[in-house]
Recover the amino acids of this structure.
């Protein structure tokens, strides 16, 4: 799978490249600043891009802006955004760009290599990967979630992160059948339409939490 | 209609009070002159002058307050009292006689009295004459003898001429009431001429104020640095030390006991994760990353998203502020919002950020219970101090029952024009 990396810290860029190569990804280009990112994406047309939010020359949210701009130039380009801190506001902006896999992760998560690689694969496949920190911040401020049981809230969180039913079942050590039952209860309680498509359901949940 | 009548009556009464006050100027001047003459008398002279001047100052400060009330603010120009200035001592005497404001006060006493009495008399006389025309008309009519008149009617000879006094009286009364507040302002302006701080005194007041705010700022900065140092020392540093130990141990164990080494490494990774969480919190407290990335408007929006009650943010800033001001403004708004969430029992709130004529205005409103009191130690004082470092101000309006409106103003310059795109995120 072909990847483009944008990260200004040499150490982290090197670390990301090593990890991805160890899992048989093909890192076709890595850039260390904002302006170089878009041309690299257009030239290489990667299957997924891993981008740091804060890039030179401005050291503001250049990476995020470039990611959003890239999505409008290359529709459906899967993007995983990495950052030292997560802001639900940024997640919201990323999610508002039209279709294609989106991920938004803390850099810390990369140390859990298996999970990170899994998230890259999920995003590349057009899915969603949201950092648990974003989700917990979103869950913390929603009053209506009081109608859910503790278990349902847990399942909702996992679902919002972008996990499949199978993955949620494994993580919470319950059967897949139990997971889909919980999900149906959640959708009913929150007054959301049931949906067969996993990712569409995730996006609906995120949109609900972000409202 | 009723408004200007009320204002006029109040100004007439103030004019009468001013006459009474002006009369006291003369004995005060006499007391001051006697005190000055007695300076050579040992022990007595030096004690008398400060005492006499204290009386003069009390009177003159009252005049300043009254002037400020009519919309002509007059600040107090006096030198601050020196340390260890005992009554009757040399220091106190020197403090009084070397202050130019002392002599300006004395210089004002006589002209101030003359102007005060004259203006007070005019502002009382005109409405009184008008009242006379209205109330004594029957008398004029009855007298109608040709040896008396009123206003423009000289002399009153007939019943009709007597009746003419009514409209004239009304017009004169109205004119007098309308004129009275203006006369108060003239009086106040004259007071300002001699009683307001001179340019030098104004600079001195400014220096005093800057000294206070600088001390506050330095204290706050030092406390902040101490807090950061403690957090780093007790948190992250200790964690990194233990991390190094774990990795070292895993390195030792890797050949002898791979399973234990595995466990060690897993633990080390978890520990590094915790260290990063702590570090993130610390960084957010020093300077929130989103503020560096998005500026004040974006950072306040991000903050509002994280609060449990809906806060609408309306930010209209044509550019970025300088970093120190931006930071002060952000923390002022953040602390205000924290207070709002914690104390106001509000269901919703709003933040408006505006920039015009070199001033950033931040208005935070909530629909809560009101009754916020800066003296109650709800952190409002801290916000005030934070803003004062940049000559900013905070005004609070919080009637019981709400709504609470906090208006903060910061004089500042905008640095770079907006380079940020905005996205429709709603």
């Amino acid at each position: 799978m072909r990847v483009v990396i944008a990260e200004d810290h040499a150490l982290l860029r090197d670390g990301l490249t090593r990890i991805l190569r160890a899992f048989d990804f093909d890192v076709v280009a890595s850039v260390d600043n904002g302006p170089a990112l878009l041309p690299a994406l257009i030239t290489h047309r990667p299957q997924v891009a891993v981008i740091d939010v804060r890039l030179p020359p401005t050291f503001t949210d250049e990476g995020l802006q470039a990611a959003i701009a890239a999505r409008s130039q290359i529709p459906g380009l899967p993007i995983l955004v990495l950052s030292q801190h997560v802001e639900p506001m940024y997640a919201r902006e990323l999610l508002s760009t039209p279709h294609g896999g989106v991920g938004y992760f803390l850099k810390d998560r990369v140390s859990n290599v298996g999970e990170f690689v899994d998230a890259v694969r999920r995003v590349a496949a057009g899915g969603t990967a949201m950092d648990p920190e974003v989700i917990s911040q979103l869950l913390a401020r929603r009053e209506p979630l009081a109608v859910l049981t503790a278990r349902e809230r847990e399942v909702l969180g996992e679902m919002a992160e972008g996990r499949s039913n199978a993955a949620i079942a494994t993580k919470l050590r319950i059967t897949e059948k139990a997971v889909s039952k919980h999900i149906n209860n959640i959708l009913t309680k929150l007054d959301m339409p049931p949906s067969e498509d996993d990712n569409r359901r995730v996006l609906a949940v995120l949109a609900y939490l972000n409202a | 209609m009723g408004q200007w009548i009320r204002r006029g009556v109040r100004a007439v009464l103030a004019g009468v009070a001013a006459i009474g006050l002006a009369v006291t100027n003369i004995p005060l001047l006499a007391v001051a002159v006697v005190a000055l003459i007695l300076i050579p008398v040992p022990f007595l002279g030096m004690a008398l002058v400060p005492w006499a001047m204290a009386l003069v100052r009390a009177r003159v400060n009252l005049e300043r307050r009254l002037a400020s009330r009519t919309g002509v603010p007059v600040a107090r120009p006096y030198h601050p009292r020196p340390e260890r200035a005992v009554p009757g001592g040399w220091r106190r005497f020197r403090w009084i006689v070397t202050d130019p404001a002392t002599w300006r006060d004395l210089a004002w006493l006589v002209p101030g009295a003359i102007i005060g009495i004259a203006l007070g008399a005019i502002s009382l006389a005109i409405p009184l004459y008008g009242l006379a025309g209205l109330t004594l008309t029957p008398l004029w009519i009855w007298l109608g003898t040709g040896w008396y008149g009123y206003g423009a009617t000289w002399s009153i000879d007939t019943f009709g001429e007597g009746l003419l006094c009514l409209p004239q009286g009304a017009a004169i009364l109205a004119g007098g009431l309308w004129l009275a507040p203006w006369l108060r302002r003239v009086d106040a302006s004259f007071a300002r001429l001699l009683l307001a701080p001179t340019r030098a005194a104004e600079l001195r007041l400014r220096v005093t104020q800057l000294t206070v705010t600088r001390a506050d700022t330095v204290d706050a900065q030092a406390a902040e640095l101490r807090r950061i140092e403690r957090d780093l020392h007790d948190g992250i540093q200790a964690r990194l030390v233990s991390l190094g130990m774990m990795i070292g141990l895993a390195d030792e164990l890797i050949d002898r006991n791979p399973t234990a080494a595995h466990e060690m490494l897993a633990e080390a990774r978890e520990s590094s994760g915790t260290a990063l969480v702590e570090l993130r919190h610390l960084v957010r407290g020093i300077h929130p990353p989103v503020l560096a990335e998005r500026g004040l408007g974006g950072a306040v929006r991000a903050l509002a998203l994280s609060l449990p009650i809906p806060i609408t943010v309306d930010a209209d800033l044509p550019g970025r502020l300088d970093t120190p001001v931006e930071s002060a403004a952000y923390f002022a708004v953040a602390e205000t919002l924290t207070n709002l969430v914690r104390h106001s029992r509000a269901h919703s709130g709003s933040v408006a950020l505006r920039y015009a004529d070199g001033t950033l205005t931040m208005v935070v409103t909530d629909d809560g219970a009101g009754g916020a009191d800066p003296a109650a130690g709800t952190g409002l004082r801290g916000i005030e101090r934070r803003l004062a470092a940049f000559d900013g101000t905070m005004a609070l309006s919080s009637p019981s029952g709400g709504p609470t409106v906090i208006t903060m103003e910061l004089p500042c310059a905008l640095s770079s024009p907006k380079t940020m795109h905005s996205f429709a995120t709603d």
Q: What stands out?
A: Residues 418-426 of chain B have pLDDT under 50 and may be disordered.
